[in-house]
Design a protein that fits this description.
The structure is a single chain. This protein has helices at about 35-55, 95-105, 125-150, 165-170, and strands spanning about 5-15, 20-30, 60-65, 70-75, 80-95, 110-120, 155-165, 190, 195-200, 205-215. By secondary structure, it is an alpha+beta fold. The chain has two domains: about 5-15 and about 125-215, Translation Initiation Factor IF3 (2-Layer Sandwich), CATH 3.30.110; about 20-120, Alpha-Beta Plaits, CATH 3.30.70.360. Strands 2, 3, 4, 5 and 6 form a five-stranded antiparallel beta sheet that branches. Strands 1-10-7 form a three-stranded antiparallel beta sheet, with helices on one face. It has a two-stranded antiparallel sheet with strand order 8-9. The protein starts with a strand and ends with a strand.
Length: about 220
């Protein structure tokens, strides 16, 4: 007699980050729209020059950066009407000590605020890990199926179906993520010394999940 054994299995892995993306906001509120724009432009010019001076797509310390378009709005209070302008600068670092030194310098500037630091791995490493985790998830599913079959006095003889988690339950047309990295932390463990920020990067959670059907006799 042939019996179908259906299992779900997941595997997880924590990977040290290879990149850190700093998300900065530069903004000023003034009674004059032109003055707000001028102050933002002056600080942005300095910050952008620093980032461009560190940029090298392959060797770093900055491997990528972006500058958003300016956002402006008007706010009224008891003192009158203020005009605020903001721009966002993002810079991805592969050199974490250099990131700390740069942040210590740039955050001394008036109007500059750190929104977050997001940790990540390179795209190449992410794909490598996803492939490894998918294989590990399939092996884990087979091991679980063999345990169920052995408990029933049977043995697994073949694989019928392997799918992303949720596919078998929901049917064709649905596909769950086979490997999904979590978002990096926002500067976990960040502290300061007298001259620079010291970061303790948060490991990145990678996972893969499968559903599988095995035939046992």
């Amino acid at each position: 007699m042939t019996t179908t054994v259906i299992v779900q299995e997941s595997v997880e892995h924590y990977e040290p980050p290879q990149r850190a993306t700093a998300n900065l906001e530069i903004g000023f509120a003034e009674f004059s729209r032109e003055q707000a724009h001028q102050r933002v432009s002056e600080v942005l010019g300095d910050v952008r020059a620093q980032v461009e001076g560190m940029y090298d797509g392959s060797r770093g310390p900055v491997t990528w950066y972006s500058v958003s378009g300016a956002r402006t709005w008007v706010r009224k209070d008891d003192d009158g009407t203020r005009f605020r302008e903001e721009v966002v600068v993002k810079a991805k670092f592969r050199d974490f000590p250099r990131l700390g030194s740069w942040l210590d310098s740039v955050l001394r500037r008036q109007g500059v605020r750190l929104r977050s630091v997001t940790w990540s791995v390179t795209e190449r490493r992410r794909k490598e890990l996803e492939a490894q985790l998918r294989k590990a998830a399939v092996r884990a599913a087979m091991g679980k199926a063999e345990q169920y079959a052995a408990a029933a006095g049977m043995r697994v003889v073949s694989v019928r179906t392997i799918a992303d988690r949720g596919y078998l339950a929901k049917g064709a047309g649905y596909s769950g993520a086979a490997a999904a990295p979590s978002r990096g932390g926002k500067a976990p463990g960040a502290g300061t010394t007298s001259d620079t920020y010291q970061f303790s990067p948060e490991d990145i959670l990678m996972s893969a999940s499968v559903e599988a059907e095995f035939l046992a006799e």
